[in-house]
Amino acid sequence: MKAYLLALVAAAAATSAQAADPMVAPVPQAPAAYDWTGAYFGAEGGYGWLAGEVPNDLFTGTKTESADGGAAAFFAGYSHQLENHVVVGIDGSFGYNWNDNSYTIVSPYPMLNGQSVTFGTEWRASVEGRVGYAFDRLLVFASGGWAATRLEGSFSLTGMSYDEVMNGWTLGGGIDYAISDNVFARLKASYSDYGSTDIITQATGIPGLPDSKLSQASLMAGIGFKF
Questions:
Q1: pTM, entire model
Q2: The domain that contains 77 carries what CATH number?
Q3: What is the C-alpha to C-alpha distance for residues 163 and 98, in angstroms, rounded to an integer?
Q4: pLDDT over 70 at 11, yes or no
Q5: Range of the domain at 113
Q6: Is residue 23 part of a domain?
């Protein structure tokens, strides 16, 4: 009987100890936030709208002629994410435009009236600084820097062709979204101003004609790989 009472006391003590120190369930750990720091490269494609401000009749006034078409490019860069989720970096691209167009000259000079000028751009290159803010796997960014393109064309009256590498500035903005740790999608809009050129003088051989201005807007979507 005494042994039985001792066993009951021991069991009660053990139960009391377990009640006083219950087992705590482990708290699940939240996944670590995505880090945009690293080098990357990728490819993109989209559409571009080229605008050329050209002399109205070769000698006086100006008008805007447009040429639009597809575009494709490769890009590469490096990003560094700060502790406050701000992301800074540098981004470069090199691509090609398909946007040739022609316009007919309306001029009071019979020799020029009805003649045509063709123009368009071929390759395009840019180097831009980037700054953005990371919402975990979503990065919203703005960019800006240097851009260059090769302008080409011809003038029907003389049969002369021309080409020139034009340099200017570019501004853009967009989003990157990390599909996985090493793959991200990109959507970017940009505007580039390439300044002025004397391509009409080059095409006609007539000195002193008004300069032409060139600018381009584009919308591109792509896929990138970060490592």
A1: 0.81
A2: 2.40.160.20
A3: 15
A4: no
A5: 37-191+221-226
A6: no
